[in-house]
C-alpha cells in the first residue's frame, strides 16, 4: 500500500508579501515534507497548484486507497511541520483503515485537521457505510 501526501505548493500565508518571500509558503512546506519522506518508499508526495483552502494556508491532504483521508492546514512551511506531517503519514500508512489514534498523533499536526474524507465505495451497497 501507499500513502499519498498531496501538497498545495501555491499556498501563501497572509503575511507572505510583507515577509518579502521569493518562494510560496506551500513550496517551502513541500520541500520540508519531501525531505522528511525521502527514504520512505511507501509514502509518495505530489504537488498541486491549489487545494482551495487558501484561508488556512498551508494545506496538505493525506490519503491512501481504501482508507480514510484527511485534509490539514494552517502550517508555516517549516522543517518541523514537514517532519510532523511525514510522521503522521507513516502512522496513516500503518493503519488498516487510515484512522490513527489521537494519542499517537505527532504534536505538530494537532490542531491542524480540517476535514476527514471517507474512502470511495468499492462495491454495490457500500454507499451508506460510515467509519
From TrEMBL:
Pfam families, alphabetized: DUF1636
InterPro entries, sorted: DUF1636
Highest taxon above the source species: Bacteria
Protein name in the entry: Metal-binding protein
Source organism of the structure: Aquimixticola soesokkakensis
